[in-house]
Design goal:
This protein is mainly α and 364 residues long. The protein has one domain. Helices cover 88% and strands 0% of the residues. The longest helix has 58 residues, at 264-321. It is elongated, with a radius of gyration of 28 Å. The protein starts with a helix and ends with a helix. The model is unreliable at 1-34 (pLDDT under 50).
Length: 364
């Protein structure tokens, strides 16, 4: 039985060391001509930024990229703010020109028309924002489908068989479910919230705006709860899987070093060095998904923050100009944009957090 166990451990260690051997081909690892398998290298090349480029960026590079993102994200919201201020000022002038100021019906009609004009002005950029969110989620879903098998093979080559099974099972199914839910339920739900906000502002009653605010509040709470539960589950399962992988790897190294005379310890040390190099490859491949998620969702996140600032400023301007319904409408639109941000962060963070967790757990 002892000889059979030693033979089994030797076969397992040889299988774990096989992917690095194939990755380097006929040249030794220290020759400086390291070559990754085709799928791994393709994943790294498809990313908008590699880990080496990320590490080589300086402060001026970061400031330049941030300035470009800010210009791209704040251009349309600032134009919308200028149009809103002009429209609210025109509505205030119209209310001031009303001859019979003792008639609340006439002033309410002017306020309602101004609120509908504000919604017409804001509807187009918000609908384009929902389309951008839907397109980013669908593109990320397609990339995850092709990325997960590749990263799972990298984890297996690094000795994290349990982590690879977790990433290709629980994480993959959860990410696909979250993407499908956001595209099929979340985006139509956002459009329904926009319609409820417009109807609440035009109705002149407090019931529908309060209902819309309650729906937004409970939606954010539900997304926070789902993200917390997912983070707890993936964290605990990753820790348990990494513990099992570490025990299996240490047991294999011990049996390999103690069972093979003369060269057992040398082969065990060499396998440890190869696995350390593979962990660097794992970080480079895993960074590709993080770069793809950042390039897809960061511009939309900046636009959402810009629109929230615009709607907050518009609400202050409406209050100053006497547009009660316009101010209530802009406050509701700001709440809708907050749901945009919550959905965006929910999907992006579960993907980035899971990938970073499996990258960091295997470094010890």
């Amino acid at each position: 039985m002892k000889r059979a166990a030693c033979l089994l451990a030797l076969l397992l260690c040889a299988a774990a060391a096989q992917p690095p051997a194939l990755a380097w081909g006929d040249e030794p690892p220290d020759s400086g001509a390291q070559q990754l398998p085709g799928e791994w290298e393709q994943v790294a090349q498809d990313a908008p930024m590699t880990a080496e480029e990320f590490g080589a960026m300086t402060l001026p590079d970061w400031l330049g990229r941030l300035g470009g993102l800010l210009r791209q994200g704040f251009e349309r919201p600032l134009r919308l703010l200028a149009k809103l201020c002009g429209l609210l000022l025109l509505a205030a002038v119209g209310q001031g020109l009303c001859a019979d100021r003792s008639s609340p019906e006439l002033l309410g009609m002017v306020d309602t028309v101004a609120a509908l004009a504000v919604f017409t002005l804001c509807a187009a950029p918000l609908l384009s924002l929902t389309e951008a969110l839907d397109g980013a989620v669908q593109a990320s879903r397609a990339y995850i489908v092709s990325f997960v098998p590749v990263f799972a093979s990298v984890l297996t080559a690094c000795g994290q068989a349990g982590g690879a099974a977790l990433y290709g099972g629980f994480f993959f199914s959860t990410a696909i479910l979250a993407a499908d839910t956001l595209c099929r339920v979340g985006v139509p739900f956002l459009r329904m919230l926009l319609a409820m906000t417009a109807a609440g502002a035009a109705s002149g009653t407090r019931t529908l705006p309060r209902l819309t605010a309650a729906v937004c509040k409970w939606t954010k709470w539900l997304l926070t709860l789902c993200a917390t539960v997912f983070g707890a589950l993936i964290g605990l399962q990753s820790v348990f899987a990494q513990s099992a992988d570490s025990v299996a790897m240490k047991t294999g190294k011990f049996l390999l070093g103690s069972s093979i005379p003369v060269v057992g310890h040398a082969f065990s040390d060499a396998m440890g060095s190869v696995l350390a190099g593979m962990r660097l490859v794992k970080g480079s491949v895993g960074f590709a998904l993080i770069a793809v998620m950042a390039s897809a969702f960061l511009p939309i996140l900046l636009q959402c923050c810009a629109y929230q600032l615009v709607f907050a400023a518009g609400e202050l301007a409406a209050s100053a100009f006497g547009g009660e319904r316009s101010g209530r409408l802009l406050a509701g639109l700001a709440e809708c944009v907050g749901i945009f941000v919550s959905m965006l962060l929910f999907f992006a963070l579960i993907v980035v957090f899971s990938t970073l967790l499996l990258i960091l757990l295997g470094t010890a």
